[in-house]
Specification:
6 strands; two-stranded antiparallel sheet; mainly alpha
Length: about 400
């Protein structure tokens, strides 16, 4: 038993010695520097609390204890940066170190009750407020996935969009442009002696009912307006006396029907411009109209002989997405048309004593306080007081 134990102990000691020799040889081989290397030798990094690194063996015949003895670190060189202690607490070189992150923003300011302010401190329009409906849809589409923005601007996609222009174009029709002075000549009763015709609404004409609403049923300001003729039709009537085959409406009734049809189309997305719209008052039929028949003409806007922007029919962006706006009624998107508003008309009498209408506050060259600033009304100027009055002011009466 003793012999067996002695042999086992000798074998363990020999195996332990061979392992230490192998570890020392591996450590020495790791520090071997090639002869063609131009870089400075690497200096070991001292880590506090770590075991010292085994130095290179001097010779193959050196004892194992000398090879494993700790070697003092070399003195620091002036031309090499010192990376000692870079692991625990010691800062690395500043020229290659990354900057620390910025401090996070503090909490939003609050009042004495801890409530945040309702209004923001900076002035301006937010990004989502400056977008329209179309811009918002495009922005939402691009934010869905980043690749979509690249796909939407590719050659194939743009070519497909270009091919759809012919089938998605908005049709428009040519309209005759009518200035404001021409409209002013037709806000009266017809001259039957010259062959003019009255409004085809007859006693239901808007010119009659506006006067009754303002002045009562027994007023003498009510009249049936004359048939409105375009400038080309008026020239033909003066030259040959020929009128259109179908009697038309007066200017006020024409604007009324046009505004009514537009509001019907604006309120109903399924509005069909080709459908007939019956016009009636108290069950009495006045005729039929269709959306494809409006507008009949275009007016001059923002010019000396035109109308103000406030007097025109407002066509918003949402109506442009409906089928009616992209069909027969598409001209309302591009042509200025005057809307119907009872406050734009004033009843007067001409020199012959016949009633007529005047357009009030709709002309582009008119100056009104509601649109432009006016000079304030001043009092009558008084003469300046003399610097040295010759006569003293009268004494006030003494109390009795």
């Amino acid at each position: 038993m003793f012999v067996i134990d002695g042999r086992a102990a000798a074998m363990q000691a020999s195996e332990h010695a061979s392992r230490r020799k192998s570890a020392a040889a591996a450590a020495a081989a790791a520090d071997i520097r090639p002869i063609n290397a131009n870089q400075a030798p690497r200096r070991p990094i001292r880590v506090p609390g770590a075991a010292p690194r085994a130095p290179k063996a001097l010779t193959s015949k050196a004892p194992l204890a000398l090879a494993l003895a700790p070697k003092p670190p070399p003195a620091p060189s002036a031309d090499l940066p010192d990376f000692s202690g870079a692991i625990e607490g010691i800062q690395p070189p500043t020229d290659k170190a990354s900057k620390p992150p910025d401090a996070p923003l503090g909490p939003l300011p609050t009042d004495e009750n801890g409530e945040r302010s309702l209004l923001q401190s900076r002035s301006g329009i937010d990004a989502d407020e400056s977008y329209g409906k179309q811009e918002y849809a495009l922005s939402s589409y691009l934010k869905l996935h980043p690749v979509l923005s690249l796909e939407s601007t590719s050659y194939e996609t743009l070519q497909l969009v270009a091919n759809l222009v012919e089938s998605t174009s908005i049709p428009t029709k040519e309209l005759e442009i009518v200035p404001k002075p021409h409209d002013d000549r037709y806000l009266r009763s017809p001259n039957v002696d010259l062959g003019e015709r009255p409004c085809n609404f007859g006693n239901r004409c808007i010119c009659v009912w506006m006067a009754r609403w303002r002045y009562g049923d027994d007023t003498d300001m009510a009249f049936i307006g004359t048939e409105f003729l375009l400038p080309s039709q008026a020239d033909e009537f003066k030259r040959s006396g020929k009128l259109p085959h179908t009697p038309g409406k007066c200017l006020v009734c024409s604007r009324y029907v046009q505004t009514y049809i537009y509001r019907c189309a604006r309120a109903d997305p399924t509005f069909k411009p080709s459908a007939a719209i019956p016009l009636q008052a108290y069950g009495n039929s006045l005729g039929v109209e269709a959306g494809e028949s409006v507008p009949t003409h275009s007016s001059v806007a923002n010019d000396s002989d035109g109308y103000r922007q406030e007097a025109l029919l407002f066509v918003d962006e949402q109506w442009a997405d409906t089928a009616a706006a992209r069909g027969a009624m598409a001209s309302l998107l591009w042509r200025p048309c005057v809307k119907f508003d009872t406050s734009h008309y004033e009843y007067v009498k001409d020199p012959s004593g016949l009633p007529r209408l005047l357009q009030h506050g709709v002309g582009a060259e008119e100056e009104t306080p509601s649109v432009h600033f006016c000079q304030p009304v001043g009092e009558a100027k008084r003469p300046p007081l003399p610097a040295n009055p010759r006569t003293p002011p009268p004494n006030p009466p003494s109390p009795a």
